[in-house]
Amino acid sequence: MHKNNNVLDEKIEYLRTMCKLKGMRVTPQRVEIYKHVANSCEHPDAETIYESVKEKMPNVSVDTVYRTLASLEDMDMIFRVDNQLPKARFDADKTPHHHFLCVKCNEVYDIFLEPGEKVELPKNAERFGEIKDINVQIRGICNKCLQEQTNKQN
Amino acid sequence: MHKNNNVLDEKIEYLRTMCKLKGMRVTPQRVEIYKHVANSCEHPDAETIYESVKEKMPNVSVDTVYRTLASLEDMDMIFRVDNQLPKARFDADKTPHHHFLCVKCNEVYDIFLEPGEKVELPKNAERFGEIKDINVQIRGICNKCLQEQTNKQN
DNA sequence: TACTTAAATAGTAATTATTCTTATTAAGGA
DNA sequence: TCCTTAATAAGAATAATTACTATTTAAGTA
Question: H helices within B4-136, ranges in order?
Answer without folding.
Answer: 5-21, 28-39, 46-56, 62-74
